[in-house]
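ingest -> validate -> predict -> emit
validate: passed (alphabet ok, no gaps, 344 aa)
predict: started
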Amino acid sequence: MSDASIENYNFQKIVVVVSAALLIIKFAAYFITNSVAIFTDAAESIVNVLAGLMGLYALYLSAKPADKTHPFGHGRVELISATVEGSMIVIAGAMIIFEAIKDLMNPTGISSLDVGLLLIIFAAAVNYIVGTLAVRKGRKNRSIALESSGKHLRTDTLSSVGIIIGLSIVYVGGLLNYNWDILDPIIALLFGAFIIITGSGVIKKAMDGIMDKADAEILEEITSCLNEHRSNDWIDIHNLRVIKYGSKLHVEMHVTLPFDMTIQEMEKENSSLHESVRTKFGDSVDLMMMPEPCKEFSCKHCKRGCAVRRAAFIGDIVWNMNLLAQEHQHAYGNRVVISNLKER
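emit:
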């Protein structure tokens, strides 16, 4: 396992333990109060525990090294885990709405709200802290499974806060001899819908990963690295592609190099490219460079001394994320913007 994978796996253990403890606390609050709104919070905690266990297994599996049957590693299991977790969140939201409608049709009394509210406030605080830490670590280590677990906990916190506010109103109303118990199932309905929306978002992000949707943030970071460590012999870069497998990044790019370069010189530039990207992403990146010889139109953007130069150097090609993702070498005919030049 890499250091990032170990961090992800160990933190997911914390997420599972905390989720299990909060599940017990929330169901205790539900049995004390008989509140359907608190039941929604407790029901979502069941999903938290199941999803946490699934995420733990996914992180363990994704950290396994590549083998004959999985040459790119096992990182995609995180996307499967996130998809299932998102589906479970949606199902939990639907169950909550069902229970809320049932309570609207056949109201039940609420009791001991003061004790129940204290338990839910404590659970919400713990959820938010652990969820925020999980999201930060997941983003840092590019683990969609850990990030999804953290978002799930923070969603649980938001729903808890709404429930706390709503039931506090019911509690205050009771102290003033007003019966506002009808707010209990209404609050549950609202947050059931909110939970479904959140679960749908988790599913969408996981499906984007399964479909290899381009990650603009990572592409921008790679572009920044290439610009910062740009070599005079990197005349142009195009067809930049990035695929994520868990915390592992597979990067491919076509690099235009001087046509008279030897294989040894190309290998040196390949090593330089690797080092430039690893300054940002460390050992989690696997880079493949596809060298291409320069063309006549490349002379205007090449600083290398060459006996067959067709034109004087005018300026570097300005690299940005969108430009590097294009499929062909860049030149005037491709209508790209060149430093200090107007388009032709």
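The first strand starts at residue 236 and ends at 245.
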